[in-house]
Write a structure and sequence with these properties.
Blueprint: H1 2-12, H2 15-36, H3 69-105, H4 107-121, H5 125-136, H6 140-167, H7 170-177, H8 182-218, H9 230-237, H10 246-273, H11 275-280
Length: about 280
Amino acid sequence: MRDNNIFWRRALLHPSFVAGGGMVLLMVLCAVLSLFWSPYSVGDIDIPNKLASPSAAHWLGTDSLGRDIGSLLLVGSQNSLLVGFIAVGIGLGVGVPLGLLASARRGGVEEVIMRASDFTFAFPALLSAIMLTAIYGPGLVVSIVAIGIFNIPVFARISRGAANAVWARDYTLAARAAGQGPLAITLTHVLPNIASVLIVQATIQFAIAILAEAALSYLGLGTQPPQPSWGRMLNEAQSQMFQAPMLAVYPGAAIALAVLGLNLLGDGLRDVLDPRLARQR
């Protein structure tokens, strides 16, 4: 309890954590709100009122089909969060155990896991999505799987590097001398001590996942109509850039604020969880 109080006292005094946390919280609240309410249904098409300017009826105006921009942004935040959570979860759930295994076993096991990670890095999320689309067709699941696969070697490398440092500590060597096995040492000493590194990396990968999902949807490989997506909103705004430039500004700003908030949150978490980094600045 005392450690939690110290953490929150430090966190609430850190400007990056407060700013980033506030922006991320706002995004989460918008996504949760859109599950129960939005100004208009995202499927409502009102051609006579297409490309309408912001008004009391449509706070952010309407697109080329007469759909309410505010509603599209609200509901589109669901996909960004969904892709981020699941893709980062795949990376954590698969990559971290692989990295811990490589650090604990060393030798041939470590070499195989690291070389497999290097091979996976040759297939970034966009390339993986293109290959999966050719087999299964475009869709949200393709985006999630492609970004999740990309996250696995990232977390494997991060966890392996951090775990190697912990395995060299005196308390770990003492645990080995006392007869504890690799699994017990990993669970009781290694994993708790690298958790802060993984948490910070997860926020960074979450931001990357949002950008990747937007890029895939922009290219038509991600979320498919009629489900709204910030990336596809940017794609659809291209043909009206001179008539209604704000159609591109709104989803672009949403993506930028979400990524900025997550990066600020990650920066704040890094300083709060390891105060030595803050003192070095």
